[in-house]
Amino acid sequence: MRGYSGGDTSDQGRDLRGGLERAAALLDGRRVAVLTGAGISTDSGIPAYRGVGAQTRANPMTIQTYLADEAARRRYWLGGHLGWRAFTSPAPNDGHLALARLERAGSVHGIVTQNVDGLHLRAGSTRVVEIHGTMHRVLCLHCGQVFDRRAVAERLEELNPWVRSPESIKLNPDGDVTPASIEGFVIPVCTLCGGMLKPEVVFFGEFVPAARFRAAESVVNAADALLVAGTSLAVNSGIRIIERARRGGIPLVIVNHEPTRADAWADTVIAGGTSPVLSGLADLLA
Fold first, then answer.
1. Which of 15, 155, 162, 235 is paired with 51 by a 20 to 30 Å CA distance?
2. What is the pTM of this model?
């Protein structure tokens, strides 16, 4: 493990340096599993659900509303289409790239992410479990067929030729926007069976698929340490991952701007941005 050579000599800089060195000492020589949340993607321009500057959403889409209310589905698909076009443009930031570098160096052996943006894969990480799914695939709820989101987007625009992506839109954390009107909007259906389509993401009120959670558990069970980055752990799926690590008795390192639900269990906590902290860890460990 190399020493940290950051140039900031302020109290904040010294605190960061000390936190990085403590974290690196815990992670050095271990197989590290990583759990990430929305905070790792904010530097790519994707807003977080919680924390300073987060958007407030009074009525997020629930699975119950999606299945029962056609008007709500139309609003979701119109807003989701406009948002998805913007959601595909952000690039991986330094935090994503640092984790990919740590994987190549043999330190990080797998990432469990609560994000649906696909940025870990685009950054070059190969062992990624997207526990809440991805905005880049669409599922038929009747026959189970999976479609590339780009193909569904093309069909949506064929059915609704008036739909155009505005130059500037207010993007929500889960990749949609709030449309002003849904008048005349037609939702695409499954081309195989005519069934209802849904982006392959876990909605509020919906359970994480059992097979996907088992894949996430396997990443943690095979690890010697857990690094948590950019999540307040307000969602139960994240806490369940933490509990698996606690049962295994492995070191826990948390990186987040705001306090998390698991800070009291952590071996060390770094209160800071994921991009500079993860880049610093990569410099020490890779």
1. 15
2. 0.86
